[in-house]
Each structure stands twice: as C-alpha cells, then as structure tokens.
Fold this sequence. Notes:
Blueprint: E1 3-6, E2 9-12, E3 15-18, E4 30-35, E5 41-46, E6 51-57, E7 60-65, E8 70-75, E9 80-84, E10 89-93, E11 100-105, E12 114-115
Amino acid sequence: MAYLITIPEFSDNRGCLCVVENVLPFEIKRIYYISDVKGKRGGHRHKKTIQALICLSGSCEIFVNNGNDAITFKLDKNNKCLIVGPDDWHTMDDFSKSATLLVLASELYDSADYIDEPYS
C-alpha cells in the first residue's frame, strides 16, 4: 500500500531547501510534473513502476486502491512525498489552482507497464 515519507527540509532566514537524497526506495529513471490540471489524472496502476509524488506548490489528493485497501492522501506540503507501488491503482484529483505535482519514477515510460482497469 502507498505510504507517506517526509523529505528532509532545511530552513533558515533565506528560505527552505528540501533534498531528495537517499530517501526513496528506488533509483530514479524518469522525472515529470503535472500542472494546470483541469480534471482527474491517473486512473491506472503498473506492472513494475514505483513512483514518488511530491506536490511542489498548492495541493492535491491522491486516491489509492491496492485491491485490499483504499485510502486518499492529501499532498499539501512540498516536503510530503507519497510512495506509490506498482500494485497501487491511483488517481490524482482536487488540484488547487497553483498546484504542480512532481513525479519521480523507477522506470522509463513504457505503455506496456500500465494497467488501466481498477480493482473490482
């Protein structure tokens, strides 16, 4: 099941620095981000890919169902990171106006890795 981790954060009078280093359970092979969202995103799971989702600005909700449990996570701080496993069918929704969702993935894009059918 998906789970939250906290990205190390260093703050001082100059601002905040968040560092993604030695905290993910995989090696990053792909990075992308989602912004200006007009509707629900996702709606799939994977055969191999593990993902780390970080809402860099604004907020969004991630619904996750692993076939046994279903939970909705709210990403509303840029040091909150949701780890989504291959078995986690997920959707991304309720994006605030200024939201940007960063996704770090364990695999390169491969259309054959996607499973679009939700669990029954």
